[in-house]
Specification:
The chain is of the alpha/beta class. The chain has two domains: 207 residues, no CATH class; 60 residues. It has eleven helices and six strands. The chain has a six-stranded mixed β-sheet with strand order 1-2-3-4-6-5, with helices on both faces. Helix 2 runs antiparallel to helix 7 and helix 8 packs antiparallel against helix 9. The protein is elongated.
Length: 315
């Protein structure tokens, strides 16, 4: 039986803020960003202060790398329609918060925004999305480059290296087994399970650090309460989604009935004008027709020559 491991969001809250465990976060970020990441310290920021409402819904952590770059990792559990806007807001806060008053703009830090969401955000089937800024010529379609002077002054290679990068991990979209080292991390994020054969950066340390059995009695009790709350929240969310869908279906059913009644009323008026001598018989007969029959009658009525043709069709 595979060992049970701690959910990543709880680990961020309680374990991965310890400097001895930076190697776990470094491994995850190195695999995701496809470069070696070394965390110098974890920072407190206005953008990652948790309100009472946020405590169960999201978890985040702000890391400063050895190169003074900023990495904001956020785990969002519950659905939020404006989450894209929130991603932008969080990064915008960091841009200004870590540029001291009077500093030149060239001192703005590179920011990576890593967002792990456990709900269906937007429309897309992939499980990893990346947003990286490039200036592309409208007419020539060439990519705008830094001048040699800019490259030397700021020690950068591309314009995109200045602007924030966004990573969106829709972990529920990941299905199947892990065939790459990055997929090993995505598999863990989705299933809270680290298989023995996993060998991604930081994964060896994560296997041990994030074992449920390694928690103290106090930590395990806190973790169990956290998971109980997650189950309760999932149940509430599922109920809300079901009720919302049920209400939509009820509204659609009422609208469909109203449209059908409107069709019947219109068709009845048209037939009464053409064949007033059988108006009494029409109401009950047309009232019993379903939507498909109404459409058929609407097409057939123009071929009727007498009221007998109509009555024969209805029979």
């Amino acid at each position: 039986m595979p060992a049970k491991h701690i959910r990543f969001d709880w680990a961020i809250k309680k374990l991965l803020r310890n400097k001895a465990n930076y190697v776990v976060l470094e491994g995850f970020l190195s695999e995701l960003l496809n470069q070696d990441i070394t965390i110098k310290t974890l920072l407190e920021s206005e953008s990652n202060q948790q309100t009472q409402e946020d405590k169960s819904n999201r978890v985040d952590i702000l890391a400063e790398t050895a190169n003074s770059e900023l990495i904001l990792i956020e785990v969002q559990n519950n659905s939020q329609l404006d989450y894209f806007h929130r991603m932008l807001y969080g990064v915008s806060q960091l841009v200004t918060e870590y540029l001291e008053q009077g500093q030149e703009y060239g001192q703005i830090r590179k920011i990576y925004s890593v967002n792990i969401v456990y709900f269906n955000l937007g429309k897309g089937d992939d499980y990893i999305y990346r947003l990286k800024s490039e200036f592309i010529g409208v007419n020539t379609e060439d990519t705008l480059k830094l001048s040699p002077a800019q490259e030397k002054k700021f020690n950068l290679k591309k314009v995109a290296d200045i602007f924030p990068e966004y990573y969106l991990l829709k972990v529920r979209n990941f299905k199947g087994s892990a065939e790459t080292t990055l997929q090993e991390w995505i598999y863990f994020l989705r299933n809270s399970e680290i298989k023995d054969e996993f060998a991604a950066k930081g994964m060896v340390e994560a296997k041990e650090t994030l074992r449920v059995n390694n928690l103290s009695d106090t930590e395990r009790a806190a973790y169990n309460r956290y998971m109980d709350n997650k189950s309760y929240e999932a149940s509430i969310l599922s109920t809300q989604e079901f009720e919302a869908q049920w209400q939509i279906e009820q509204i659609e059913e009422v609208q469909m009935r109203a449209r059908e009644e409107g069709k019947k009323s219109l068709l009845l008026r048209q037939l009464e004008r053409r064949f007033p001598e059988v108006a009494t018989e029409l109401s009950a007969a047309i009232g019993s027709l379903n939507s498909q029959d109404l459409e058929s009658l609407g097409d057939a009525m123009w071929d009727f020559k007498t009221s007998d043709d109509l009555l024969n069709w209805l029979q």
